[in-house]
Amino acid sequence: MQSTKTRRKVAPVAENGDSADKLDQLLLSSAICNGEDIGPFIRKAFASGKPETLHHHLRQFARSKESEIEEVCKAHYQDFILAVDDLRSLLSDVESLKSSLWESNSKLQSVGGPLLSSLEAFVEARNVSQNVNLALESVSICVRLIELCSRSNHHISNGNFYMALKCVDSLESEFLDKTPSSTLKKMLEKKIPAIRSHIERKVSKEFGDWLVEIRVVSRNLGQLAIGQASAARQREEDLRIKQRQAEEQSRLSLRDCVYALEEEDEDGLSSGGGDDGNGGSAILGFDLTPLYRAYHIHQTLGLEDRFKQYYFENRKLQLTSDFQVSSMTPFLESHQTFFAQIAGFFIVEDRVLRTGGGLISKMEVENLWETAVSKMCSVLEDQFSRMQTANHLLLIKDYVSLLGVTLRRYGYPVDALLDVLSKHRDKYHELLLSDCRKQIAEALTADKFEQMLMKKEYEYSMNVLSFQIQTSDIIPAFPYVAPFSSTVPDCCRIVRSFIEDSVSFMSYGGQLDFFDVVKKYLDRLLGEVLDGALLKLINTSIHGVSQAMQVAANMAVLERACDFFFRHAAQLSGISLRMAERGRRQFPLSNARDAAEEMLSGMLKTKVDGFLTLIENVNWMADEPTQSGNEYVNEVIIYLETLVSTAQQILPAQVLKRVLQDVLSHISEKIVGALFGDSVKRFSVNAIMGIDVDIRLLESFADNQAPLLSDEDANQLKTALAEARQLVNLLLSNHPENFLNPVIRERSYNTLDYRKVVTISEKLRDPSDRLFGTFGSRGAKQNPKKKSLDALIKRLKDVS
Which of 169, 305, 375, 498 has its CA 20 to 30 A from that of 260? Predict the structure, then answer.
């Protein structure tokens, strides 16, 4: 196929163009061929003001490309013609194929129409089925979700918060992301945190109520635990009393057996108390269920550490509040509540530590206890420093020691508290001594110095047997007149109370062997307080022989009572009587006893002196010796016999012996003094023989006391007259010069003073000698006795 159009020729580039235009044309042609941007060329042309040159270059490039196109078309012209012929030959085949396809399509449409309608029905049914299944699954999920929500609400309404939280956790983990309902999902997202917050508030409120309630429970718990410790202590005391009674009976019996009593502790307090199923204590009656439920709930909520801290801080604040001592109420009235509150607090904390699953640590409890001990010690120091009554201090000490016993069972160290009690031991005993001093003074002031009359056996038991001051184990007939006055049982009760209070203070204070301390203060009570009060009474308030005799009798009874006091102190202190006897001193009331006997003797001497004034009536130059004794000695003996008949009813034999011995010694001194004194210028042998009769009467009186005393004591009474007897024996002796023999003098005249012998011997005159200073008349034979006496006088004067 030939083209009728003429082919355009590309004009050659002018040879005379300048090199710049050629270069620009080449660069433009290269950029177009390479597909580069020709914008820079356009901007350059317009910038230089020569757009025509650019236009010219573009037209030159277009002409050059048109020629190339023509050459390509010419090269492929024949192939194109052949391809068109092939296409025309294929046109008929395409038409036949088209008709065949149309027929096949018609058949397919007729056959596939019903199938297509069936398929469409199937697809629609399958979609409906899938929708129904999805709806059923969604409904099932919603039903389970609603059931779980209902169950959670039921648990919340019943207060079963742990199960409610488990339901909420299941809702969150299993249904929150799977719920098909956006409304339900929004509801869950909103209510789950609200439910958890509600449960936390509820358990926190319950825990707060428990904190309020546990303070009252702790006080009652502390009182109950301390009461049980007190009951256990009382049982121990009763057992010790029975043991002491058994030991005493065994000691008094002839058998060598000692029976030990044993008792079973029927209702003792176990060291930890029994736990019930809820973490409470069935015995001590407190419930930790609200606490443990709150702790468990907070653990479930993931707030365990926060709850631990919250619990510890609140309990610490409660303990600090418990430390407050009211200034409006005396500590004596509030100390039991104060210490019971603290005891109950730490009993609860011990239970929480052992059963709380780590709610509170051992270190935290120990820190709380150290704080409590420090505060209790401070309170005790302050209160003890203010107290001026021993009984008040003892009451608080007893309760603190019971507190220590109670809390030691739970493993708490109480040594610091016991140290505070020991520190105030001296102050307590000083206050106790002061109280006893007042009581003893009142008892002595109230005494009428009359023998006690006991009408009933219980009075005898209360005033005599209870202090072991009886002289016989046989119960007397009633009414019974005791040999002592009311001072004795009154003072015994005061001293016994002092011993028991002292032992009570020293007991359970951490010191096991405290008998020496009790004995030290008992010695002070007896040796300083009681002895001093009795001395004051004797020196200021005793008037008359009967009162003095009663006081002396009281002292004898108190001497037996002192033995009981030391035995009682030893028994209460838990040591054997044999060990206690080793440290016994002499009678602690010896000063008062000696003063009482001295006063009684002094009064009797005064009475006797009144009778001895009758010695002036003696005829010292009598011609005949008297046979019945001089008047003065008869009066003295009558008085002494009357005195003995009265004194033997109340005075012990030894006291009566000492008093009579002192009185007889005084009489002897008075007789010798009368012979030695200036009132007697001279006397005869007959007068001395009369004095000898007087002394024999006095010696006979002493011998007559043997049934009351003993033969030995009666002989000791006679020795009180030794000076007068030896002097009379010397003056009546046929060999007075034997006085110069040391052996004879030591045996027969050991009480005589040689100076008195000289003076008295010079006064002796023979009846025939009427001149002072001579022993016979001139020219008469001198009496050998007189001669021996003169020699004795001369020798004694030479010695002096």
Answer: 498
State both tokens at 671. 């007789």
Q: What is the pLDDT of residue 397?
A: 84
Angstrom distance (rounded) from CA 105 to CA 118:
19
Per-residue confidence (pLDDT) for residue 367, from 0 to 100: 92
Look up residue 599 and give its two tokens: 């006063």
pLDDT at 245: 67
| Cβ-contact 435, 388 below 8 angstroms | no
Tokens of 29: 């042609």
State the pLDDT at residue 172. Answer: 67
Crossing angle between the packed helical segments 304-322 and 182-252, to the nearest 10 degrees = 40
Q: How far apart are CA 472 and CA 153, in angstroms?
A: 88
**Structure-block tokens of residue 143:** 């039903």
480 strand-pairing partners: 454
**CA 418, 422, 427: angle at the middle one, nearest 5?**
140
Question: From CA 511, how far away is CA 524, in angstroms rounded?
Answer: 21
Cis amide prior to 479 (ω within 30 degrees): yes
Q: How many helices (H) and strands (E) does the chain have?
A: 27, 4
Q: Helix or strand or coil: residue 303?
A: coil
Cα–Cα dist 20/381, whole Å: 120
734 CB-near residues (< 8 Å, 6+ apart): 784, 785, 788
Tokens 């006095």: give the residue: 698
> How many of the other CB atoms lie within 10 Å of CB of 706?
14
Q: DSSP letters along 214-252, please?
A: HHHHHHHHHHHHHHHHHHHHHHHHHHHHHHHHHHHHHHH
Query: Are the C-beta atoms of residues 308 and 359 closer than 8 Å to each other?
Result: yes
Nearest-angstrom CA–CA distance, 118 and 113 = 9
Collect all residues with Cβ–Cβ distance below 8 Å to 692 and sequence separation of at least 6.
728, 732
The residues with which 765 forms a beta bridge, in sequence order, are 684
Q: Which of 231, 296, 290, 288 is nearest to 265 (CA)?
A: 231
**Cβ pair 187, 148 in contact under 8 A:** no
Rounded to whole angstroms, the Cα distance separating 610 from 146 reads 124
CB 373 within 8 A of CB 416: yes
In degrees, to the nearest 5, what angle opens at C-alpha 314 toward C-alphas 313 and 319? 95
CA distance 587 to 593: 9
What's the CA gap between 565 and 27, in Å, rounded?
Answer: 143
* Separation between Cα atoms, residue 211 and residue 621, nearest integer Å: 110
For residue 398, how many other CB atoms are within 10 A of its CB? 17
Q: Measuring CA to CA, how many Å separate 80 from each of 44, 76, 77, 86? A: 44, 6, 5, 10
684 vs 769: CA distance, rounded Å:
10
The type of residue at 336 is Q
Query: Residue 305 contacts by C-beta under 8 Å, 6 or more apart in sequence?
Result: none
In this prediction, residue 123 carries a pLDDT of: 92
- Other C-beta atoms closer than 10 Å to the C-beta of 200 total 18
- Cβ density class 63-82: b for 16+ within 10 Å, e for less: eeeeeeebeeeeeeeeeeee
pLDDT of residue 222: 87
* Length of the chain, in residues: 800
Environment class of residue 8 by beta-carbon count within 10 Å: exposed (0-12), middle (13-18) or buried (19+)?
exposed
Rounded to two decimals, what is the model's pTM? Answer: 0.65
Residues of the chain with pLDDT under 70: 1-18, 145, 159, 161, 170-181, 184-185, 244-245, 247-285, 508-513, 579-585, 765-800
Structure tokens at 131: 């929708």
Give the whole-angstrom CA distance, residue 344 versus residue 353. 14
110: its two tokens: 């007729």
